[in-house]
Amino acid sequence: MGMAASQGRFLQLTSRKNNIGLQLTRLSNEKVSLTREMQNVSRRYQDALNTKTLKWSNNAGVSYIDLSYSNLMTPSAMNQQQPYVLTDSAGKVVIASNYSKYAEMISPDGAAGGDWKNNRTKILAELTGIDEGKLNSYDSAKANLDAAQANLDGLNDYKETKIDPLMKKFEGKGGTAALVEKLGSTTGGGSFASKGNWKDAYNSGDSIKISGTSELQGIANQLKNLAAYFPDIETADFEKGIDNSIKGSMTAMANGTELPTGGTVTGSKDKGFEVNVVALINSALSAAGATKAPDNAYAGSSKVNYEWYDTSKPEYATWKTEHDAWHEKYEAGMAQYNTAESALASIFTSAEESEFAFYDAIFTAIAEKGWTQNNKVTDTSYLNEMLQNGIYSLTTMTKSLYVDGQNTDGSARFNYEYSTDIAVNNNHVYTVNDSDVQNDAMVDYEYEKSIINAKETRIDTRMKNLETEQSAITQMLQGLEQVRNDNIERTFSIFS
């Protein structure tokens, strides 16, 4: 009976030991599974750390703000009152519900070529809060200014293509040296006579020695006669250039100050003064806006020569008649432009004008390019994804005159030129690490890691308990096995 009971106990403990072994195997597999789960959590966290987002910057990347639909399509300091139109792959303007009402007024089906002209005043009045009457006054004043600008552009084009070519017919060929020669043997008086005349002084490259401010003024007055040979510049500008080039020297001479080497006038009362004729002429011509043209006789030298015109030729009279008639029209055109500009400036405040121009550009684009609605674009993350993947682009707009400059009614004719590109090519858009995603990922990572650690702790505790029980069973089995062996040995010894 004792042997049977011992054997039953042995079998029971063996079964329990095997069961514990099975549980330990399962728990060990669970730990392996937790390791894989932790690897996945770590991988997601690392991916989040590498996540990039598009941000907007107005200071070359020093600081950023969100690249949002509002920041692109609503006038603000962020976009500096310039629209950055969101467009899809077909070129249509992508809008949210805030603009859908007005877009439908222009083009109900979203097609390009909508009616902006007849809805413009009403839409702009609602969006800006500016009275419709004020908007109409602005449009009228703007049309006058545009017409005045177109008129000036036309006059400038006429001068360049019709009048200026006439000058070539009486153009001089000798450069500035020939102009000096036209002054002949005229001298500035005093010690200047020692150099003979203007031509000799210029061609020798020497400076003219003078005794003081009165002689310098005499030279300046004679140089002003050269203005007659530059009909494409204002005589007053040339004369002012002469005066300005010696003004500082005159003051310094009167004060007895040493004049610096390299200027148009150098020296002192003790040493005497010298005037560089070439420098004086070049200084005056530069101040008057004359066009530089190298003269072969002085190529590579310090003498810089300019285009000039022989006004003694009969072709000069033809040019002057045409030029004076043009100039009269141009002066009248400038007066018309200034009046129109003042009238326009008095209608809107600068803030109203900026807001008006912003919405005018947005809805001109909607009318010309068509539109599509997607309310998801107000979600910054969604918009960012669409821009990063190149599904949506940013379009900028520049207003300019048509080639012909005018409509059939004579009014100025303007259009918008569109420039569309992916967001990252815009100089305000930067690709940066997404700190929001990183912060969220950190929170998720720590939370998921704590759960995994808690599971692992429970498994380790359970395995430790099972291993302790397993060790105790092993010892008990060893004891039963020893008792069994002793009984067998004692029984067989009785019968031996």
Defining key terms:
496 residues, three-stranded antiparallel beta sheet, 11 strands, 58% helix
Strand content: 5-15%
H/I helix tally: 14
Helix content: 55-70%
SSE order in H/E notation? HEEHEEHHHHHEHHEEHHHEHEEEH
Tell how many strands the DSSP assignment holds. Answer: 11
Largest sheet: 3 strands, antiparallel
Provide the residue-averaged pLDDT: 79
Q: Which secondary-structure class do the elements indicate?
A: mainly alpha
Q: Give the overall form.
A: elongated
Strand order, sheet with most strands: 2-1-11
Poorly predicted spans: 187-196, 292-304, 402-413
CA radius of gyration:
46 Å
Distance between the termini: 22 Å
Task: Report a brief summary of the structure.
The protein is built from 14 helices and eleven strands. By secondary structure, it is mainly α. The strands form four sheets. The protein has a three-stranded antiparallel sheet with strand order 2-1-11, with helices on one face.
Describe the protein's architecture and organization.
The structure is a single chain. With 496 residues, the protein is mostly helical. It is built from 14 helices and eleven strands. It has helices at 2-49, 69-73, 97-106, 120-128, 132-167, 175-181, 198-204, 213-223, 235-254, 277-288, 315-345, 350-369, 380-388, 435-495, and strands spanning 52-56, 65-66, 85-87, 93-95, 208-210, 265-268, 272-275, 371-373, 393-406, 412-421, 429-433. The strands form four sheets. A three-stranded antiparallel beta sheet has the order 2-1-11, with helices on one face. Strands 3-9-10 form a three-stranded antiparallel beta sheet. Strand 1 and strand 2 form a beta hairpin. Helix 8 (213-223) packs antiparallel against helix 9 (235-254). The chain is elongated, with a radius of gyration of 46 Å. The model is unreliable at 187-196, 292-304 and 402-413 (pLDDT under 50).
